[in-house]
UniProtKB/TrEMBL annotation:
Source organism (scientific name): Alkalicoccobacillus porphyridii
Domain HTH arsR-type, residue spans: 262-348
InterPro entries on file: ArsR-like_HTH (IPR011991), HTH_ArsR_DNA-bd_dom (IPR001845), HTH_MetalResp_TranReg (IPR051081), WH-like_DNA-bd_sf (IPR036388), WH_DNA-bd_sf (IPR036390)
Pfam families: HTH_5
Listed SMART domains: HTH_ARSR
GO molecular function annotations of the record: DNA binding; DNA-binding transcription factor activity
This protein's name: Winged helix-turn-helix transcriptional regulator
Gene3D superfamilies: Winged helix-like DNA-binding domain superfamily/Winged helix DNA-binding domain
Record key words, sorted: DNA-binding, Transcription, Transcription regulation
TM region positions: none
Signal peptide: none
Length: 348
């Protein structure tokens, strides 16, 4: 086949914007503490100690159980994208005044333009549309049941839950760290905004901020929104809005401990900790030979899948392993860069 390529090699990229607030931090903290599989990988365990030690109110504990059962942290994040006043009273007023259809519409996950009409019908309570939209969301394991819960739950019950979990988390967990968190987040934003000016390509900057996510331009996405967080470190959470890709990214160690040369980049100890286990080293060696499915890894290492999931989660949090369609691959570039990163840290 012969091709004459007259296309533009420098395709239009996306614009980059930032947003931050303590409400984002609250919602992401709620998301983190209710995610069973990732809780043990979180780097800020002390932040969640009131939950671990049972020092929280019965009301907050009850609301967190609802979040855990129905993944309503997703609703909190979705709603915050439509909120102008990012204060706690502003959030409370916003939820109270939203009509049922609009609230549900804001809470539902965005797929693409093709599904917008069906999403609106589901938000209005049409039974067949709810099921159709839930079926369309099966690419994310929890989405179908989440869609059904958002669309079928009594609106007063749903509103009360969303307000109560956000309010009690903010008051009981976040408020005592409010000034510290605000300074860390603003420090990180200032650093990232200054750093953005040194990049020629938006894609390279997103990869830098997210510790390795290679997000290439999509025809339907014109903007990338970057939202810093402390609570969910070391994870980056990726989400879709209409025309926008959202990355909730973990703030850097230097934003938490400014001016301390002994504090390494947060990914450095995370990576070496992930490699500091014999079972995980075996997985790395196996994946170095090529991508493998969970079944292939389990059969080769003679290890239960539950144990494999634990180890693979550790490797994924360190960006050493990626997964797509139930297939795991080794990030060889990240592995090769580890030695250089250690040398750079020791010599500076």
């Amino acid at each position: 086949m012969k091709i004459l390529d007259y296309s533009n090699p420098n395709r239009e990229s996306y614009t980059i914007s930032f947003h931050s607030s303590l409400l984002w931090e609250s919602a992401l903290g709620i998301a983190a503490i209710t995610h069973d599989k990732l809780r043990e990988t979180l780097t800020e365990e002390a932040f969640f100690s009131p939950v671990h030690t049972g020092e929280i109110s019965t009301k907050l504990a009850t609301e967190l159980k609802t979040v855990h059962a129905h993944n309503t942290w997703k609703a909190l994040l979705q709603l915050l994208h439509h909120l102008e006043d990012h204060s706690l009273p502003g959030f409370q007023r916003f939820i109270e005044t939203l009509d049922a259809t609009k609230l549900r519409h804001y809470c539902l996950p965005y797929l693409n333009k093709q599904w917008v009409a069906l999403m609106e019908q589901a938000a209005q309570g049409d039974a067949s549309s709810i099921e159709a939209y839930a079926d369309a969301c099966q690419h994310i394991a929890f989405f179908p049941e989440y869609v059904r819960y958002i669309c079928r739950t009594d609106i007063v019950v749903l509103k009360t839950h969303l307000i109560d979990v956000m309010t009690h988390w903010f008051d009981e967990i976040l408020s005592s760290n409010q000034n510290k968190l605000e300074k860390m987040i603003h420090r990180d934003l200032d650093t990232k905004r200054a750093k953005l000016k040194t990049f020629n390509r938006s894609e390279a900057f997103v990869e830098f901020v997210t510790d390795g996510i290679d997000y290439q331009p999509e025809p339907s996405v014109s903007n990338v929104l970057l939202i810093p967080h402390f609570s969910y470190r070391p994870w980056t959470i990726v989400a879709d809005l209409q025309n926008t890709k959202v990355f909730y990214y973990p703030i850097a160690n230097s934003s938490i401990h400014p001016g301390d040369p002994l504090v390494p980049d947060r990914m450095l100890p995370l990576a070496y900790k992930a490699l500091g286990d014999e079972a995980r080293l075996k997985m790395v060696k196996l994946l170095y030979q090529g991508p493998k499915s969970l079944q292939e890894i389990a059969a080769t290492l003679n290890m239960p899948k539950s144990t494999l999931h634990h180890h693979l989660t550790q490797l994924r949090s360190a960006r050493l392993v990626t997964s797509q369609s139930s297939t795991y691959s080794l990030n060889k570039q990240k592995l090769h860069e580890l030695g250089e990163a250690l040398t750079e840290y020791l010599s500076n």
